[in-house]
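To whoever picks this up:

The parser on our side crashed when reading a file containing two proteins. I've narrowed it down to the boundary between the first structure block and the second sequence. Both blocks are reproduced below exactly, byte for byte. First block:
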Amino acid sequence: MLESASSTGIFGEVAEWSKAPHSKCGVWETVPRVRISPSPPTMNSTNLTTALKYLRKDTRLGDVVKKNPKPDFKPARNVYEALVRSIVYQQLSGKAAGTILRRFLELFPGAGYPKPEAVLKTSVAKMRGVGLSGQKTEYIKDLSKKFLDGTIEPKKFKAMTDEEIRQHLIAVKGIGRWSADMFLMFALNRPDVLPTGDLGIRKGFQKLFKMKELPDSQKMERLAEPWRPYRTVASWYLWRLADEGNRSR
């Protein structure tokens, strides 16, 4: 499996999720912090403002939030497109992956993004010919099959918890917990995701809490408890913190 955990934070592989094509609308519901709803909230301008106000009060993370710009969360307009893109971009630089993705899409001339049916009908040789590895070709075909056979049902995502969606996506070859977390954060804009398998997040915790060693998942979950239910936003700032000194801007 090519599943990867970012080592370069928000400006590395994670950034490709945040740059993926998004819808200009489509936020399902805004849920106040104290309310429990069967339909999980997604990030929009209202609860982002609430999250920033809340996190600025944090004794450690507050300063990081104050000195950095606010994130821009927009829902993906096409779930299948977002997941294909995530597979293509695994373990590649943005430039190389972008070239391969463009060539892949050129296999399907016409309006709109290729449908799973069209991808399944495309030969392995053609897909390998645009630069996809044999493994990634297999993953994209498996993703397409699971969209068609009902294993992946995006229409149900609105009523599903974050963990239910993770398990839903992990059924696809090539998609592990890290990719599922990135999908929850940057495609569905779920507000309370903490991707503890991401190296950039671990480095952010290490720097914020002045640790000698990288923390494990349990320690990060415990330390991030005060940030609920806005751990997606908190994670974005942890990436910024981890990347200080690496950014040219």
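<<boundary where parser fails>>
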Amino acid sequence: MLDHTLRGYKDRLLRPLVVPLDRVSPNVVTLLAMVVGLAAAVMAARQMVALGLVLWLASRILDGLDGLLARVHEQQTDFGGYLDIVADFAVYAAVPIGLFLGRATAGLGVSLALLLGSFYVNAASWMYLSAILEKRSAGASARGELTTVTMPAGLVGGTETILFYAAFLIWPGALPWLFLAMAGLVLLGVIQRLWWAQRHLLETPVHLARWPVREIVVQDKANGAVVDREIAVFDAWGGWSGDEKDVVEKDEDVDSIVADFLGGWQL
């Protein structure tokens, strides 16, 4: 929920750290963040929660560096984005499990099961919605996002996860209630996305839709002569209706039409 608001501040804060790292692969930083995060889980299992907290925060700082490093030094790849999300999910699962192993009780086990179950449902809710939006040309590129694919927001995002996990490690005695609180908010985010999807995904898919625009001038390709003035339609994939004609917009350029069109898909 706070990720979009804080991303700019985070990038400005961490940028001085990545500028000199032009020879470092972002994927190496991603893997290092995962290793440090898994080490935090091991410390949690050993009830060394102070060290676990330090390692957890260090892993999240490293996680914030990999994408910024890739953008600053133009090393962005689809594989890097894929590796990053897999590494994040591994750490997100390992830390609560480690905390449970350090103080296993039946009540804590139930809370942990509900938390991990909420993560499972949440992943399905945002990943499949992300795939649909990318399919409809309303994904990360169209929305001006910096991630590999669009990540539909929920109540609990990366920032909230950092805070919750820090609370887990600071107040281990309250783990059953903290697990339940996070699970509840995660599931509320799932309901939020379902509500949004029910209102928007019943519409005609973007790649099949054709949308009216203002009056245009139709010119013949051969000699540039004006053939007709009419109301044309702009195809969501980037083409104009009509056969073998160049369409020249009279009142507004194509980019503004695309921006207006895609704006309707913001979450």
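After patching the parser it read the second block fine. The chain has a mean pLDDT of 80. The first strand starts at residue 210 and ends at 220.
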